[in-house]
Amino acid sequence: MGTVKAVLVFLSFLLFLTGKCSTNSPEIDENGYILYCPCMGRFGNQADHFLGSLAFAHGLNRTLVLPPWVEYDYSKPHSIQIPFKKYFKVEPLKEYHRVITMEEFMSELAPIIWPEGKRIVFCYGKRQWVQSKDDGGCNAKDGNPFGPFWDTFGVNFDASEFYGPLGYDSHDHRVARQWKEKFPVKKFLVMAFTGAPASFPVEKENIELHRYLQWSDEIQNMVDRFIAKELPTGPFLAVHLRNGGDWTNVCKHVSDTSKGRHLFASAQCLGYDFEYGNEITDELCFPSENTVLRQIKDKAEKTGAVAVVVATDSQSMIEKISKALKNKVKVVQRLPPEPHVDLALLARADHYIGNCISTFSAFATRERRVNSKPVSFWAFNGRHASDEL
Description:
This protein has helices spanning 2-17, 43-60, 84-87, 102-113, 146-151, 173-182, 217-230, 245-251, 267-270, 282-285, 289-303, 318-324, 339-348, 359-370; strands at 33-36, 63-66, 69-71, 80-82, 99-101, 120-123, 159-162, 190-193, 236-241, 307-312, 330-332, 351-354, 375-377. By secondary structure, it is an alpha/beta fold.
């Protein structure tokens, strides 16, 4: 490591001489860096992968470069990248491990420690995109959002490295050691991955890391304003209704899910070892209106809720919920809907009912559980120890 440190000191000196570095620039981490594209799914899936990637970076003792969140505006031909810190604070993450935003890394450090012409990308094995010429490597920029993500930072890759059959469970010291032996920091100071170096759904061991993922002041202020303006004083119930057309298609696969296997985020209610339930049902995935109305009425009565906040990707059912509550409880949806503000609202409620299968629901579940707040699920009667009212 001494040789690596000497080289990095020299590179830091070069940064200063070339004007690429100011007195406020971050120091170069001699233990190395991990970058990745959060290129699978929407926010819920990306958040699962983020926790795993954070744990992976910690296990390998490399600084994690915080990627922007990938979002999709379907009126545009490609994804858009939202800076990490728009939604979440960076400093709380540093209580667990070293991190730096992608924007800061690319502007302050990459020109020297990861220069153009020497950028290697890592993938499990050969990746071929049907619309591209096969180069025998990772083809890391082929397809959307892969290409647009790296193009946001002007990154092109010059070589590929395959890491298969290595896995991501860096909690296992043997796995971490294998990574360090195969890709020593003196040769690979920067490891950029085609996708997240993490399992999906999030592993049980990484759920607690959610406590370091704290909403930005911008998001928190939006929640504060909504509560102050729209909700009467008193307890409120929050619910997540996942009932869009794409979810209908997901729930068609319930019958194909083998017993003893999870579907998306089902471990959040059934338990990772199915200790709270062992059956994934159609109703668990896509609850009927009767189930939704019955559970809302029950929890509103038990919590003394003066309001119900609905977060949904499609049908809010506000009129039907109001009628079920005999118009005695205010039922609202934040409009226009903004997923991240909705999630922060779900976390603030006195009680929350989510969808057992949804990774979006699971985000709110994790945040509530690390803060010891109760959670329920549609059509599920089992009870997690931390979900008692």
